[in-house]
Structures are given as structure tokens and as C-alpha cells.
Automatic annotation (TrEMBL):
Keyword Signal set for record: no
Residues annotated as binding ATP: 10-17
Listed name of the protein: Thymidylate kinase
Organism: Paenibacillus ferrarius
E.C. number: 2.7.4.9
Length: 219
């Protein structure tokens, strides 16, 4: 596999999408072939599953169904889109991946970590990110950014998706889960302080990503 697979993780509203777009623009300016995608989503089937998972009306969804729906969305995404792009040598930037299932479904909901990892491993046929940036912000900051994004787009707090509407305690467990994932995978994961300006964050990610590209080329 010649491509490079980079994932962005962190709480809702941490600034993942913003940073992913900035990195994609900078990489494209250097002539790299970049694929930008996201989970849940990225293919027609995965997007349909996304709308089922995030619909605020689906309050009765049981935890097992939630884990398996994220995994089903991921299976289609990995095999239809990500693996072919990596085989073609592209740089794939993905907004969330398996770490999100571990942070939200395992640490957040309380499902056993090994079960969530095993289901995700099966769904993705063992694909792992080359590098993961976890954008870390206090829960109050990410919540405030989400509210800001919602009002900028003319929606209100009641229209946040099903996961975003969950309680602060849940989001605190998710954040702690991301810290644990970083501690478990120091080679792959970089925790980036996202409670700074967009440009400061982008610079740190850009410098690390350049080192990664150099290592990749020299292999
Ligand atoms: N470093 C930052 N400082 C302040 N606001 C930010 C920063 N990065 C992103 N935002 C804003 O916060 C909101 C959420 O950002 P977004 O990139 O959509 O986050 P995510 O994809 O992690 O949910 C958006 O309104 C965005 O403009
Ligand atoms: C990929 C994935 C996402 N999620 C959640 C996190 C988000 O609340 C939601 C949608 O992700 P996303 O679109 O990235 O939301 P945001 O841009 O607001 O950060 O799905 C999981 O709970 N498990 C997963 O495996």
C-alpha cells in the first residue's frame, strides 16, 4: 500500500473539519493527490447509515445497534473508497475513524473496549491510520464552538445531532477516552492542543505531517 492514511479525531466542535481542510489545501498546493472523507459517511451507503445513526428522533437506539451501524458504515467506506485510494498512492484525510468508536461507544457508552476494537477491526479488515491527530479541547470549549457553528448556520441547540445532544458527563468520558487512546498508541497518535488559534494548530499539524511525508518517501 503506497498511500498515507491520516485521521482527525477529538470531540465534536474541536475544529477537526477546519484543520482537515487546511491541511488538504496545503498538501494540494504541493501537488499531492489528496482524498478528503469522513465517518460516518464517505459513500452513498455509509451516508444513509449516518442519517440513521445521527437522527435526533432515534432516541430508542440501543448501544449494540449504534456500535454495529458505525461499523457497517466503516466497512463500506474502507472497502469502497479508502483502500482503493491508498492502493492508488493517494493521501487520505479522514474526519474520524476507529478511535471515534473506541472513544464514543466504548469509553462514552461503557461498552467493552476490546469488543468495540474487534468489531472495528473486522469492519476495516485491520486497516489502521498512519497518523492520527487528536484535537484536544476542554468540553466547555467544544460545546461553545458547536453552539457557535449551529447559530452561524441558522440552527439551534435542539437541532444538534443525536450524539451532540448527549450530556456533558458523556462528552467528558469521551475526552478522557481520547487521552487513553493517545497513551496506548504513542507512535501513531499526536495530541494537539486545539484551544488555540486555527493558524497555530494548523502550523503544528503541518510540521508533523511534513516529517511523516519525508519518512514515507525515504522508506
Ligand atoms: N481554533 C479555533 N478557534 C475558535 N473556533 C474554531 C477553531 N477551529 C474551529 N472553530 C470553529 O468551531 C466550530 C467547530 O469547528 P469544526 O471544524 O466544524 O469542528 P469539528 O469538525 O471538530 O466538529 C466552527 O464554527 C469553526 O469555525
Ligand atoms: C465515526 C464515529 C463517529 N461518532 C460520532 C461522533 C460525532 O458526534 C458524530 C458525527 O461525527 P462528525 O460528523 O465528525 O461530527 P462533528 O463534525 O460535530 O464532530 O458521530 C461515534 O460516536 N462513533 C464513531 O465511530
Amino acid at each position: 500500500m503506497n498511500g498515507i492514511f491520516i485521521t482527525f479525531e477529538g470531540p465534536d466542535g474541536a475544529g477537526k473539519t477546519t484543520q482537515l481542510r487546511m491541511l488538504a489545501d496545503d498538501l494540494k498546493k504541493l501537488g499531492h493527490d489528496v482524498l478528503v472523507t469522513r465517518e460516518p459517511g464517505g459513500t452513498a451507503i455509509s451516508d444513509l447509515i449516518r442519517s440513521i445513526i445521527l437522527d435526533p428522533a432515534h432516541k430508542e437506539m440501543v448501544d449494540q445497534a449504534e456500535v454495529l451501524l458505525y461499523a457497517a458504515s466503516r466497512a463500506q467506506h474502507v472497502h469502497q473508497l479508502i483502500l482503493p485510494a491508498l492502493k492508488a498512492g493517494r493521501i487520505v484525510l479522514c474526519d474520524r475513524f476507529i478511535d471515534a468508536s473506541v472513544a464514543y461507544q466504548a469509553y462514552g457508552l461503557g461498552i467493552e473496549v476490546d469488543i468495540v476494537k474487534e468489531i472495528s477491526r473486522y469492519a476495516s479488515s485491520g486497516l489502521e491510520a498512519t497518523r492520527t491527530y487528536i484535537l484536544d479541547v476542554p468540553v466547555e470549549v467544544s460545546m461553545a464552538r458547536l453552539q457557535g457553528r449551529a447559530s452561524a448556520s441558522g440552527t439551534n441547540a435542539q437541532q444538534l445531532d443525536r450524539i451532540e445532544q448527549k450530556h456533558v458527563d458523556y462528552h467528558s468520558r469521551v475526552r478522557a477516552g481520547f487521552h487513553q487512546i493517545a497513551a496506548d498508541h504513542p507512535e501513531r497518535v499526536r495530541v494537539v492542543n486545539a484551544n488555540r488559534s486555527e493558524m497555530e494548530i494548523a502550523t503544528e499539524i503541518w510540521e508533523d505531517c511534513n516529517r511523516l511525508l519525508e519518512e514515507h518517501i525515504s522508506v
